[in-house]
Task: structure prediction
Amino acid sequence: MNKLLTTMFAFAVACVTLSAQSQTLTGNAKDGSKKIAMCVGCHGIVGYQASFPEIHKVPMIAGQSATYIVSALTAYKGGDRKHPTMRAIADTLAPQDIVDLAAYYSQLGLKEGDAPPAALAKAPSKEVEALIARDAANACTKCHGANFNTPNDGTVPKLAGQYPDYLFVALKAYKADNHPMVGRANAIMGGQAKRYSVAELKVLASYISTLPGDVKTVPESLLHRSD
Result:
């Protein structure tokens, strides 16, 4: 038992150290553009669908915040997120690679003044409105923003316009934090997701996907244009 506790403690320290390293580094988008070979095969194809361990479209990451991308990749590398493919890729990345990739994807496909007007957001149905505000002190919009596109913290993702099946799978993963392949260990999101049934999470994911947002997929063929 002591050996197990020692191993767990060492792992936790390693994760904290990795996160701290990433936060003190400065990302370079130009350098990041040279490190995307393992990313574009999935994230550079519009509508690309993963089949293992669950079938869903891979998330759109162009236009996502750099701080969140760093946080997500660090979670995969540290084991807090269990998806086998993403863990394997993250394991090959040094902290500098992570911040460079984050810098690159955060500005990819974005133009100044390109943010979608909040006025275009679809009003939620009474059912969805009740789900979002189920616990006023911990409502989804407290962190992700009223339009789900203006997070209150860099480590919180933009969700508006994201693929509904990906959002659904991601939300379910927080309910299964100990699952060896799809679980996600995050105290805040775990607490939130577990307050909802699987059916309710699907309703939330479906609504959020209809909102105008920054995230998109830039096709791989466009990444190599000279203009």
In short: The chain has one domain: 28-112+122-220. The CA atoms of residues 98 and 158 lie 19 Å apart. The beta strands are 49-50, 56-57. Residues 1-17 have pLDDT under 50 and may be disordered.
